[in-house]
Design brief:
This protein is mainly β. The protein has 1 helix and 9 strands, in the order ββββαβββββ. It has a single domain, classed as OB fold (Dihydrolipoamide Acetyltransferase, E2P).
Length: 159
């Protein structure tokens, strides 16, 4: 089960508590791997203007065991907003300008311009739990750190 810091920090209208007993987020202990999942929608931002780099991303075909683990953590924190959607989907955040990307042969590549319909392996970081300023909503903060494009809708460019 996840361990939470005693300290929190405010980020806009939410407060984030790190998933670490030391108070510092550590990716090595809280990395989740999604294997052979698909991206059903383009990453997007609610009421965005198109210039945002931190977007919401969904994956479908998420392993049931991982879904159960996340559901248990959400139950433990009393989450009112779930990262688990529908029967097999998971919602998280992605920093489009910072995510590492590689192709099926593990060669570094740029992110495809269109992610919808791609089949990928993805590494997610359980950053922590968030709570709104009013305390009316809370949930898990998951962020994509790496994408391995297994099958893309367009040709990948290696660098």
């Amino acid at each position: 089960m996840a361990q939470w810091s005693d300290r929190s920090y405010k980020a806009g209208d939410v407060t984030l508590t790190a998933c670490s007993p030391e108070g510092r987020p550590r990716t090595e202990n809280f990395t989740l791997k999604l294997e052979n999942v698909s991206i059903p929608f383009e990453p997007s931002c609610f009421q965005g203007n198109g210039s945002e780099t931190r977007l919401t991303m969904c994956f479908s075909g998420v392993d049931e065991k991982l879904r159960q683990q996340l559901a248990a953590i959400e139950k433990d924190i009393g989450a009112t907003t779930s990262c688990l959607k529908n029967e097999d989907m998971l919602r998280c955040k992605i920093q489009m300008d910072k995510v590492d990307c590689c192709d099926a042969d593990c060669m570094r590549t740029e992110l495809p311009k269109a992610l919808r319909g791609c089949t990928v392996n993805a590494y997610l970081w359980l950053r922590g739990k968030w709570t709104t300023a009013q305390g009316s909503a809370c949930g898990l903060s998951l962020e994509v750190t790496q994408l391995q494009i297994l099958e893309a809708r367009e040709h990948l460019r290696r660098y």
